[in-house]
Amino acid sequence: KFPAKYQKALYLLDWTFGTIHVVHPKAAGASYTATREEFLSRTPLPLTDAAIGPDGAFYFTVGGRGAQSELFRVTYVGDASTATVDGKDTEFAELRAVRRKLETYHNDNSSSAKAVEFIWPNLGHADRHIRFAARTALEHQATKLWQGRALAEKDPETFISAVIALARQGDKSLEPQVLEALDGIYLGALTDMQKLALLRAYGLTIVRMGRPDQQTAARISQKLDPLYPAKTDDLNRELSRVLVALNSPTVITKTLKLMHAESTQ
User: Fold this and answer.
1) For residue 136, which of 162, 97, 175 has the smallest C-alpha distance?
2) How do residues 139-173 score in pLDDT, each as one tens digit?
3) CA terminus-to-terminus distance, the chain
4) What does the longest C-alpha to C-alpha distance in the chain come to?
5) Cβ neighbours, 10 Å, residue 27
6) Phi and psi dihedrals of 182, rounded to 5?
7) What are 90-118's pLDDT values in tens digits?
8) What's the pTM?
9) With the CA atoms of 98, 103, 104 and 110 taken in that order, what torsion angle do they form, in degrees rounded to the nearest 10?
């Protein structure tokens, strides 16, 4: 029996700092964004559990490590309506339906060309949550059904998603073909998010399939080195990891310079 936005919220209990946070989700594409606010706090308040009671009040307990156990009851006082609301969001329902359809393949041990045909167009979807669901679904299909298609794919977004799946599920013998295909991507046409995904693909390929030979490593380093340092911490983090794995001759000097110039830890 709280106002509508608090009925549809998530409640997070922080034992250490004695705070209950309330998180308000908002439908966004195939998933959600959210805002957080402090619901209540006290020092000390070692939170241990919470539940909504039959009376609509918020109950929570505290205790542990020798602290006094207590039970609290939180009720709403105010003029806003506390009538029960439907917690379901209708906005972006179609996108969530696509994501959930893809997720049905996440625990499916059967493989089929029909499933791959449904999954494939979603590997390059504009919504990253759908891309993630599609890539995970693809990993549950036999690689023989799609590895050739992955290596021949021309759309960068689709290709990167498929290659990440191949790096995770494909045979190690495919590494030269995977790296050659990754080298074919023109970096100048990629967004920062796509560059991050590409670096993830390189990193996973190296981790899962093994360090490439010296000549291949040098070729990839020469391609990636001009990007480093980048304008964002996220790109710099991934670039440094991949370039270190490739034994880049410039990565140490560049990284130390970045660390020296950084104002935070």
Assistant:
1) 162
2) 999 999 999 999 999 999 999 999 999 999 999 99
3) 44
4) 72
5) 16
6) -65, -35
7) 999 999 999 999 999 998 778 899 999 99
8) 0.83
9) 120
